[in-house]
Target: Ring-1,2-phenylacetyl-CoA epoxidase subunit PaaA
Amino acid sequence: SETDGRARFDELIAADSRVEPRDWMPDDYRRTLIRQMSQHAHSEIIGMQPEANWITRAPSLKRKAILMAKVQDEAGHGLYLYSATETLGVTRDELTEQLLSGRAKYSSIFNYPTLSWADIGAIGWLVDGAAICNQVPLCRCSYAPYGRAMVRICKEESFHQRQGFEILLTLMRGTPEQQRMAQDAVDRWYWPSLMMFGPPDGDSPNSARSMAWKIKRFSNDDLRQRFVAMLVPQAEALGVTLPDPDLRWNEERQAYDLGPIDWSELQEVIAGRGVCNAQRLQRRREAHEDGRWVREAAAAYAEKQRAARAS
Ligand code: FAQ
Model:
């Protein structure tokens, strides 16, 4: 009965146990997971575009092979997350339709342009770095298929972050012009990477409930703090400056003070008015159309197999 289901669900959450797809769960819990997991999946898929922009222009064969592998990893994460989302009773077709129609959200970060090769380093270091900070706690998400997906995805993201750091390190050991390129990329990607963690806690309508359900384990601001604390020594090792003159350690709070974040920029990008929003969606629609024959061929093949088994 629903009463038994709810009692068991509450027990699982209280005991830090895992909810599996066939377990009873509240409708709102299911809806929240579909929302977050599908947004996450869409982000991985749209997130292929900014970096794919540099595959043909990577500065060496080795860099090109590494970048291609990384972009393919993002595709894998997206597919893995769509499958995990389907365990909640939504179809892949519905999720795809939501993305292509522009109704679904995906991470703000992928609506910024990649202007130079150094941006590929900055994305690996900052964007994948932020993704790791956000996703390591999600490995303990109360919904088991999401948590399991995150374990595997985080391993790959760690490698991605190292490769981004290494690109920037190579540039910083290069000519003054290469150093300027690296600093310029960090200047442009730093603030948007802080926005990836979402609005400040006071303006985050979903956080309290998601934390009570143990989907999210830390608040948006707490994760942003962890991220900055991770970046500071790495920026020092690289020799780049984080573009925040107000950034300093606060001994009393045992945390970093940050300069003001332009939250109107995040709102604008989420509302679809970022530099690349239109282009990203247009490209995704084209790619989906280009793949139509593959979907049709796969469906025809599956039908033939089914008919053969039935006869
Ligand atoms: N962009 O109440 P909250 C990657 C929306 S990493 C766009 O705080 P919540 C790896 C939010 O959805 C990127 N929208 O919401 C990679 C909500 O709207 P809704 C993907 C944002 O869910 C690297 C509203 O604002 N990672 O892909 C953003 O509790 C390199 C209110 O916000 C994930 O998705 C934003 N930045 O917390 C790939 C991680 N921030 O749905 C390729 C999983 C907030 O009510 C290359 N997701 N919104 O209409 C999460 O952890 C959470 O969903 C948050 C937001 C933290 C993003």
Q: What stands out?
A: Residues 35-36, 39-40, 43-44, 47, 74, 105, 107-108, 123, 127-128, 131, 134, 195-199, 204-207, 210, 216, 220, 270 surround Phenylacetyl coenzyme A (CB under 6 Å). The beta strands are 248-250, 255-257. The mean pLDDT is 97.
